[in-house]
Amino acid sequence: TTTPSASPRRVEYRQTDNGFVPNYATEVVEQPWSSYTRTDNEVWATLFRRQHELLPGRACREFVENMGRFGMGADRIPRFDELNKVLHRATGWELIAVEGLLPEVTFFEHLSMRRFPVTWWIRKPEQLDYIAEPDLFHDLFGHVPLLLNPVFADYVAAYGAGGVKAARIGKEALLNLARLYWFTVEFGLLRTDEGLRIYGAGIVSSKSESIYSLESASPNRIAFDLERVMRTKYRIDSFQKTYFVIDSFESLFEATLPDLAPTYARLRGVPAFGAGDVLSSDRVLHRGSREGWPNDADF
Ligand code: PHE
Ligand code: FE
After folding, report:
1. Which of the ligands is closest to the CA of residue 169?
2. What pLDDT does 21 receive?
3. Is 189 in the pocket of ligand 1 (CB under 6 A)?
4. I need a surface site. Which of 27, 72, 98, 183 has the fewest CB within 10 A?
5. Backbone φ, ψ for residue 98 (5° rounding)
6. How far is it, in rounded angstroms, from Cα 159 to Cα 294?
7. CA distance 199 to 189
8. Nearest 5°: phi and psi at 143?
9. Cβ(54) to ligand 1 under 6 A?
10. Among 63, 74, 52, 47, which residue's Cα sits nearest to residue 137?
11. How would DSSP label each residue in the chain?
12. Ligand 1 atom showing the smallest separation from residue 253 Cα
């Protein structure tokens, strides 16, 4: 007999007028916890141990402490139903298991209802250091700890509601908002009294970028400014050329609290900045040496 394996159902791409788009998964499923293989659990253990050792002193205190509050460990892939007991009581959020990337508006609707979609399958052993699409390790280890922080939890829910609204306004508004997600939730840095710390999920779930984002001389580190961020292209295929630094989750939440419709209107047709541009209006914490930057176009 064959055991059902927890191997990923690969996201397939189809060509449309807008280029290649993933064949999105839309189903919310049960996390098939008992079907994880020994290899799946070993991949989790390896990634968990690596980041658990690397992140104290690099990730923000809230991230490290909240990981502990969940009782996540290297021993096994966590069960969403167990995490949900802790999470729901703390901030009203709930994890839902999904097969992969969701269509934008579906994703925003879930967030606005405080449901965080987590890809249930985990990467293969040969993908420890890089995987093109989000898997369980990125979604769970990277995103979920900060959902225990009340202010950050409110920010992500407000972001979801803002996404539903931006989708009605138009494509450009959505792109502005996607950049905000990218440079905060995925690749954000936080200024603390002890120095710069990581809070972005794309960084904390990557060994090499956890080090690079803080310690490399190559990237820019620039103080967060909402409109500046919404106008900045980003890289999806390499380390970031620029990281934006917030002062606190409170200040991030406050900056994004006002109605953004007038901002979208103002930014319409305004050209975007390159991923590595530094402007005279920027508050620059570190000007990147640009070493090792890819020369091809940013997105
Ligand atoms: N206040 C924003 C709006 O009117 C919603 C939002 C909140 C967007 C947080 C992004 C982040 O669109
Ligand atoms: Fe993510």
Report:
1. 1
2. 59
3. no
4. 27
5. -135, 165
6. 31
7. 6
8. -95, -30
9. no
10. 47
11. --PPP----PPPEEEETTEEEE-----EE---GGG--HHHHHHHHHHHHHHHHH-TTTB-HHHHHHHHHHT--SSSPPPHHHHHHHHHHHHS-EEEEESSPPPHHHHHHHHHTTEEEEE-----GGGSS--SS--HIIIIIIITGGGGSHHHHHHHHHHHHHHHHHHHH-HHHHHHHHHHHIIIIIT-EEEETTEEEE--HHHHT-HHHHHHHHH-SSSEEEE--HHHHHTB---SSSS-SEEEEES-HHHHHHHH-S--HHHHHHHTTPPPBPTT---TT--EEE----TT---S---
12. 9
Q: Is the CB of 29 under 6 A from ligand 1?
A: no
Question: What pLDDT is stored for residue 238 in this prediction?
Answer: 87
Cα 173 to ligand 1 centre (Å): 11
Say yes or no: CB of residue 265 within 6 Å of ligand 1.
no
Q: Which two tokens stand for residue 284?
A: 């620059």
- Higher-confidence residue of 7 and 84: namely 84
Q: What is the mean pLDDT of residues 156-182?
A: 97
Beta carbons within 8 Å of 255's beta carbon, 6+ residues apart: 224, 226
Q: How far apart are CA 210 and CA 175, in angstroms?
A: 26
- In this model, does residue 20 exceed pLDDT 90? no
How is the chain split into domains, by residue range? 26-286
> 178-191: b or e for each residue (b if 16 or more CB lie within 10 Å)?
ebbbbbbbbbbbbb
**Looking at domain 26-286, does it have CATH number 1.10.800.10?**
yes
Question: Per residue in 257-271, pLDDT tens?
Answer: 999 999 999 999 999
Per-residue confidence (pLDDT) for residue 133, from 0 to 100: 87
How many Cβ atoms from other residues are within 10 Å of residue 37's Cβ? 14
CA distance 25 to 117: 11
